[in-house]
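Mods, move this if it's the wrong board.
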Amino acid sequence: MDIKRIDSKHDEGRGLILDWTKIQWHRERVEAWLRGEKIAPITIDMALTRACNYRCEYCYSILQENPRKKITKDVMFRFLDDAAEIGVKAISLVSDGESSISPFYSDFIVRGSENGLSMAMGTNGYLVTRDKLEAILPHLTYLRFNISAGEPKRYVEIHGVPESYFYQVCQNIKDAVEIKRRWNLQVTIGLQMVLMPEYGDQILPLAKLGQMLKPDYLIIKHCSDDENGSLGVDYSAYQSLYDTLMEAEAFTTENYLVKVKWSKIESGGRRRYVQCYGPPFILQLSGSGLVAPCGMLFGEKYRHYWIGNIVDTPFKEIWQSDRYWEVMDEIVSPRFDARTMCGTLCLQHKVNEFLWDLKQGRIELREPADSVPEHINFI
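Not the wrong board. C-alpha cells:
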C-alpha cells in the first residue's frame, strides 16, 4: 500500500519527536552504559497511586496488579531528592494509575521542578481543574490529556464514566491552553488517543475536537496488549483505518499537529529485538511504589523481576543495590526474550530498537546532526 502521510522522525518546524526516541542526544550516558558503568535512568515514568476514577476499555493497568502501598508526601519528596542526586533528568506521571487522585500531585510536580528535574504528566484530565492548572503548568514540560473519543456518547462507552466528565475534561483542556497563552509558558499541551481498531469512528471527531480546543498536538497511538493477548487487540485490523488516520493528520495546522504513531501501528505488535536494553535509561515505577524494569513486569506473575519499593526503601538505595543490577542483567541475558516473555509495544520500545541496533553494529553512536528537540529528557 502506497501511504502518503506525515511520516518523519521529526515534525519539522515544531521541535517535537512523537514517534521515535531522543536517547541519541544523551550520548555521554549511552557511552557510560556501553562501558558497563552503572548509570542512572534518564527518564523515570511513574504514578503516585494505583487508583483510577475511569474504567477505560483498553486499560493495561488491570494486567499490572501488585501489592498496593500508599505513597505519602514524605515518600514522594524523598524519592525526588534521590532522583535528582543520582542524575535522573526527567519524571513523567503516567504509569499505572491516575496520579491526579493523589492529594499531593501538584506538590510533587513543583518539588521535582525545583529540584531541577524535567516534569511531565499524563492524565484523564477530569480532576485537573483550573486551580490545579495554575499551580502546575509553570513547572511542567508537557501536560497530556488521555482522551480516546471526540463525541460524548462514545466517550462514555470507551472511558466508562458519566457524560458530564467529557464536558469537564474539555473545559479543563481549554483552561490549560488559555493559562499557557496568558502566561506565555513553554509547557506543551497535548491530547492522546489510545486507538483500538473498534474506535475508528472516533478518529476524525477527535481530530476536529482538537481543532476546537486548540492544544499543541493530538497523538494517535496503538493499544498495547500482554503476551497472551488479554485485551484482545487485533493488530491486523489497524490497516483498515489507514485512510482515516491519514485524513486525521490532514487536520494539522500551523499551531495544531495531528500525529499518528505509524511505526507501532504498522508493526503488528511485533518486536525485532530480543533482549531488553531500555530500562536502565527509562525506568518505570508502579503507583504502589514498586520498582521494576518496566510497566509490563509489574503484575504478580512477574514477581521475579521486582526490585524494591520506594515506600519501604529510599530510591537511591534501591538503585545502588545488587538486586537492581541483577534484574537489569537478567533482561539482557539469553534467558530473556522480549518477543515472547512480555507484552507488546512497551514504553521502552523505541529506545530498545535504537540500543539493539547499536549493540548489533547496525548504527553508530554519533552526535545527532539534527537540532536539539523539545522534551529532550523524556527519551
